[in-house]
Structure of Tn3 family transposase:
Amino acid sequence: MPRRQILSSDEKERLLVVPDDDILLTRMCFLSEQDLVLINKHRRPANRLGFAILLCYLRGPGFTPDKNSLPHDGVMSRVAERLKLQPDLWREYAAREETRWEHLAELYRYLRLAPFSRSLQKTCIRHLYPHAMRTDKGLILAEEMLAWLHNNNVIFPSVDVMERTLAEAATLADRAVFSTLTTQLEQRHKTALDNLLASGDEQLSRLAWMLQPPGKINGKNVLQHIDRLNAIEGLALPEGITLSVHQNRLLKLAREGRKMSSRDLAKFSGTRRYAMLVCIISEARATLTDEIIELHERILGSLFSRAKRTQAERLQKTGKLIQSKLRQYLTVGQALLNARESGEDPWAAIEDVLPWPEFITSLEETQFLARKDNFDPLHLLTEKYSTLRKYAPRMLSALQFSAAPSALPLGNALDTVREMYRKQLRKVPSTAPVKFIPESWKKLVITPSGIDRRYYEFCVLNELKGALRSGDIWVRGSRRYRNFDDYLIPPADFEKSLKEKQLQLAIPTDCQEYLHSRMTLLASRLEEVNAMAIAGDLPDVDISDKGVKVTPLDNNVPSTVSPFANLVYGMLPHPKITEILDEVDSWTGFTRHFTHLKNNHVRPKDKKLLLTTILADGINLGLTKMAESCPGTTKASLEGIQAWYIRDETYAAALAELVNAQKKCPLAASWGDGTTSSSDGQNFRVGSHGRYAGQVNLKYGQEPGVQVYTHISDQYSPFYTKVISRVRDSTHVLDGLLYHESDLEITEHYTDTAGFTEHVFALMHLLGFAFAPRIRDLHDKRLFIHGKAEKYSGLQSIISTTSLNLKEIETHWNEVLRLATSIKQGTVTASLMLKKLASYPKQNGLAKALREIGRIERTLFMLDWFRDPALRRRVQAGLNKGEARNALARAVFMHRLGEIRDRGLENQSYRASGLTLLTAAITLWNTVYIERAIESLKRKGLQINEPLVSHLSPLGWEHINLSGDYIWRNNLKLGSGKYRPLRTVDVSLYKKQA
């Protein structure tokens, strides 16, 4: 088998380590009476200590400590204490190699450990093979191999032997993947795939054309995408050709292939070339399907928005005329009243104030003003019918829809419209389904003369949008619009985990036990807060018949913080942004996580090129301008780095490195312990090609933009970021808590109003997070209880008239557990499920059950909010940190007018990730130097008021040079353990101010 590198040097070092966990160390170092008898057979104290340590290592993690280094301190101290010996004896023991080997042979017999023979190696490879079919990540395979060795009482071989074993398993899996993907291909398939790579001198290859992004949001680009999808279907690849290969493998091969030119792909051997093309085509089919649906949704959205704007403009234009008519008819009405009272002729009275011909004209004008299309934008939709008609027939023909039982009427309506398009019918059949039509559409669709064709088509395609989002209708070949049940763990696997109590959720899995505990807590909390409300003891909260009023928090930042912050920041060096990145990398080595797409152990030869590419993303300069601003670089070299080393997962791993480094800084503990966090969305305008990908969020105006959603810890480190476009913030709250890669253990999370829904409250609780949103319209929210509101007279005005429906929870309890378990295990992302739940019709049982759980948790939270001002202050402080971090991000992301001009979501994601990495690096650099500045002040004899330190922020940027030429200066590189000199400040001036 060919030798290949499976593990990086860092991974090799991390592979055989003893964890720093007191419970695991205590368990590892336990010595039984039988062990002690064996140990005490050795006369010399050093031999007893060494033998015992080797015993603990072999029986615990399975390997032995290196003879040239000391064992883990926790192991040495525990074993030495148990044997009543000095830990220093290890040095004496380690000096005799022969004794060590004799002891190992004795321990192998005692523990019944077998050597790692060639036959066991083959058995191990067979065990690793299915794992290698799922992933090619060496560390994951190595951990699985260690577990196998440990469970089978096999002596751990050297790391080199382990790596050769892993390489054999990985190579066998690679060959099997390529073979599986190509075995079913006939010669006609291979010829068609090869033709995709052919291109003229100046023309795109057929493959490159298939992979083009959608462009502007219009019918023409929908048709072009349908052409691409039809071209893929025209290849007629065998059905299910990719089903036997794990999704991780498919995605990696597809991503690798997309980065290559058609010429590069053509150079591969036949088997590998065809396998990669199959993966690329498979992923492209799913992407095109999803993008066609998204284009359709956005076109519909723009048509509805245009209709609303048109209706609003018409109302504005006719506003003066409407007022005139109102005054006119008020005058006529008054004249009629006067005529009745005086007994005069009413017709003459009207003639006196409004001549009859003018009265008739006025009636006609009023009839025009009173038309429904002046007040209901739905009446204006058909003015843009041609836009829909341009692409809808081909879209319905190209996509294959399936419907859940609850959505069958809509599914049948789709078939009807598709058939009308195919047969070019001008009228809607009288038998066409109409049960799915909402009340707001019925008068437009169903008319006295029959079904209005245009409104029927509009209605069907608009309802399709909601059904796709909820999962009631799904699309063959889609990644984002699949059957809801397909996203969850299989029912049989769930039932097995439930029976074995392996769901790993934060709640009791028995429904009655869960409900009893929550209802008991709710009743207790209601009684407590009710008593406080009656006594007027709720701090800064007033509950009366008019509702609830919470007094805003006062500013608790001491006035002395500002002079202290100015003093400390005045001492910080004034670096360039390039110097900060270079220095932070020297501390953390975060650049080592940017590995090659094809080989996880290859890193860029020129680290400065990598840092330059990251900087181009983070400051929004782009590769072309960055090449001009950074001497010694070219656009081509930066594009090469971006193509092969910049990915979402490499950015995430590098960010985790910086977050972990921040967590280890002593100063960071002054701001928090790393267990609370907040999240917020930040809107960036889009320009140039980015306008096609941007979407309008009315919260930020009428201009299209991109929303970047970021999670930040209480230690100011941003630990997760995601481009979320126009989606409500609450959809993505859980993603950051579940999928970040740092060592933070978040237990409590804060958001603003946009970050909460009842479904989010429910899932946060089920997955073990305390959720505390700052709800802007809290006075409009109601408490939900199980029982009579009269029991809580102090809260009665804010208790909902709708009681908690515990039956819904009981009925759908297993569905709730299955959903939460699927999210917890990573089978599906939380954001995708929350989107679908939000789109579910109100009668859906699972959505209703989650809503009831969410109501319980929101009620408990509101009661805590009323009674606990400390909670309000924590939430306020957490959100303030997020807003301050957003200000830093806005300052860093300064080029191109702060606009995102990338058309594709992938490149937009790189911009957001680069920006987050830069802000994390600045935060870490500031933290380190603020800490050094404080220590310097203490050495100078300044008495530091420690509570002031907790009010300092590491998010300042005025001392950092963010613009100009971006030069990497090797001659300014600091040595290991060296720092830049602090600036001199006048401490006496601060003392006077303080």
In short: Residues 9-179 form one domain. The two ends are 72 Å apart (CA to CA). Confidence is low (pLDDT under 50) at residues 690-694.
